Amino acid sequence: MTITTILEKLPYGESFLFVDTLEYIDEQKVTGSFTFRPEMDCYKGHFKTYPVTPGVLLTEVMAQIGLVCMGIYLTGGPAGLSFGLTSTHVEFMRPVLPGEKVTVTGEKIYFRFGKLKCRVTMINEQGETVSSGELAGMIIGPDKIRNS
Amino acid sequence: MDKTTLMATIKEVVQPYTKNPEALATLNEDTDFIRDLKINSANLVDVVLDVEEKFNIVIDNDSMEKMINVRAAMEVVENKLAAS
């Protein structure tokens, strides 16, 4: 599957798409990047006096690149199915400011019984580690999403 | 491996994932992983992977789906050990 196809299959709309490009992907590893645009809404309130990217959004970038893109690559993005985030264990080492570009690398720990677990690391343009951790998600049917 | 040791090992494996310490304390063959131990379905995958590692066996999709309680898990492990 090509990088273009994976990007097309991402289920996010413009307001919540946190992948700009993928630089590399195979069955074990994925690398991609995202630039936090200064005009993003979150910076108006996080924080009131000075803007810093919220940790939940760093986690989301790591999940979309390191987990979801890998999941689409491994499964072909199965029709009628979706991914659900099931766990995040993430540490944050440095702040990310408006306008910064981050690069995420995800490495597959396992993909078994419909569950994908990846070790994910995010670096800034200086090559410094911003955050890292382990994320997992599962393939779930649309009916499960409605019922939960 | 005798049944007592087998059950004790399974108890050890599920311990980090259970949300219900009372059910873990009284774990027996009828203990259901989801209903009694309150293990969520994502963590159930980790339980199965830890069982694989603990017993050095490979569990296929069909066997995984059967592993809903302690009895079924013990049967799967015993069958895999006997076949290896």
UniProtKB/TrEMBL annotation, chain A:
Gene3D superfamilies in alphabetical order: Hotdog Thioesterase (3.10.129.10)
InterPro entries, alphabetized: ApeI-like, FabA_FabZ, HotDog_dom_sf
Domain of life of the source: Bacteria
Pfam families assigned to the protein according to its UniProt record, in alphabetical order: ApeI-like
Domain ApeI dehydratase-like: 26-133
Keywords tagged on the record: Lyase
Protein name in the entry: Beta-hydroxyacyl-ACP dehydratase
Lineage of the species this protein comes from: Bacteria, Pseudomonadati, Bacteroidota, Chitinophagia, Chitinophagales
From TrEMBL, chain B:
Protein's recorded name: Acyl carrier protein
Gene3D superfamilies: ACP-like (1.10.1200.10)
Annotated InterPro entries: ACP-like_sf, PP-bd_ACP
Carrier domain: residues covered: 4-81
Superkingdom of origin: Bacteria
Organism of provenance: Chitinophaga qingshengii
SUPFAM superfamilies in alphabetical order: ACP-like
